[in-house]
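Our preliminary data section would be incomplete without showing what the modeling component actually yields. Below, a chain of 164 amino acids is followed by its predicted structure, encoded as C-alpha cells that our downstream tools consume directly.
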Amino acid sequence: MRLFLALWPDDAVRRQLVSAQRAWLWPARTAPVPADRLHLTLHFLGEVAEDGARELASSLPPCKAPFTLRLDRAALWPQGIAVLEPSDAPAGLATLHADLAALLRAQGLRVEARAFRPHVTLARHAQGAMPPAELPAIEWAVRGYALVRSRAGASAGYEPIARA
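Predicted structure:
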C-alpha cells in the first residue's frame, strides 16, 4: 500500500482551500489538485506492506496538543508547484511531525531526510501561474491527523484509512 500521514481538512477548511485555489490565475497546462485530495503531508511513507500498515494504523498516537495552523502565504515553487504555506509554522506542528517521525523509525519505516516544509499543494505544472494579490488566511484548527492510502489506476485517489 502506498501511504502517507497527513493533516486531513474538514469540510469547512476544504472549502477555504478550494476558494484559495480558485483565486489563482492558472495557465492552461496547470493540473489543479482535485478538492478531495487537498491535504498537508506530514510524512510520505511510500509502499508499506499490509501488515505494516495495520500495525501503524493501530499505533497512531493522538495529537498531544491541538494547534491552529495559519495558511497565509501563496507561493509558486520550482517545477511549477503552487502551494499555500504558513509564514510561521506553529510549534504544535513541529512537535507532531517529530513525534510521528520517532514512531515511524521505531516501526522500521522510512522517514525523509530533507527538512519538513509544511504546505498544501494546490496545483502542479503551474509555471507562470499568478497567485492572488491578497489571500485571506485560512485558520485550520488541527485536532488530529490521518493515515492515508494513495490509490493509482482506475480507482485513483486518496483514502484515509485511520485517524488519530
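The domain at 2-163 is CATH 3.90.1140.10 (Cyclic Phosphodiesterase; Chain: A,). The mean pLDDT is 95. Preliminary results of this kind motivate Aim 1 of the renewal.
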